[in-house]
Amino acid sequence: MWNQDRTDAYKGMLAETVTMQGYNGDRIHAYFTRPLGEGPYPGILLIPHMPGWDEINFEVARRFTHHGYLTICPNIYERFGHGLPGEIATKAREAGGVADDSVMGDCEGALNYLTSLPYASGKNGVIGMCSGGRHTFLAACKLEGLDAAVDCWGGRVIMGKEDLSPANPVAPIDLTPQLSCPLLGIFGNEDMFPSPEQVNQHEAELKKHGKTYEFHRYDGAGHGFWYYDRDAYRPVQAMDSWGKTFAFFEKHLRGLS
Question: What is the structure's pLDDT at 257?
Fold first, then answer.
């Protein structure tokens, strides 16, 4: 999928900040990108990570749209105010994180936004990295209307009772029987959050309940190895897993293999 565009192919997109209805009827911002054309196009819900609703999310959204997807990334941190992404992420951490119910409400609103568009195909996937990977698994277990999910190194899918809180009342792993769509997992073997042992536990639970999934684990890579703005970036592993992500969405959102 990477670098496979013909040199005579037209490429155009619209990328902008929009307002959508989120959790509890709140009006929140979202970054929305779409190809310029009649479609129909499948949609991707991109859930931002704990570093915040930030530039790397916006670049990921545009990359998906370059490949023919509608993409929406809701600002799940809207209730903590506005400022630089790192400032708002710090406020969220100090408050104990954003509540799962709030994130799921915002994700449901984002899916409603996608499906309302006249150029939408009706097929939708979800993807997230880090805390967004955890939220991706939650969404795939709790929300209707998802056809594929990609969890990139989502931490705290496995949680002990001591880790639960009013904001995070349920360990996502306990919702595995409710997983409603195929799941792709991308993990680094040097990551400790989730650790390889936790990834093993996650996979065992998926097998136990007969779920459709594929996990890819990369040697020489730790947490956040797609993030090219930091030392964690691993270009070879990142581009291989990007290819697997595109192939997964092509199969489940376009019916191509």
Answer: 62
Is residue 2 predicted with pLDDT exceeding 90? no
Q: Transcribe 91-140 into DSSP letters.
A: HHHHTT---HHHHHHHHHHHHHHHHTSTTEEEEEEEEEETHHHHHHHHHH
Amino acid found at 61: A
Handedness of CA 77, 82, 85, 90 (dihedral sign): negative
* Position 183 pLDDT exceeds 80: yes
* 234 contacts: CB under 8 Å, gap ≥ 6: 188, 218, 220, 221, 225
The CA distance from 187 to 202, in Å, is 12
Q: Report which DSSP code applies to 78.
A: G
Ordered strands of the 13-21 beta sheet: 13-21, 27-35, 70-74, 41-47, 120-129, 148-152, 183-188, 213-218
Q: For residue 11, what are the CA distances in angstroms to 8, 124, 151, 239? A: 9, 22, 28, 21
Give pLDDT tens digits for 187-223.
Answer: 999 999 999 999 999 999 999 999 999 999 999 999 9
Give the helix/strand (H/E) hosting 250: helix 235-253
In this prediction, residue 3 carries a pLDDT of: 86
- The string of pLDDT tens digits covering residues 43-98 is 999 999 999 999 999 999 999 999 999 999 999 999 999 999 999 999 999 998 99
- Tell me how many degrees the CA angle 37-42-43 measures, rounded to the nearest 5: 105
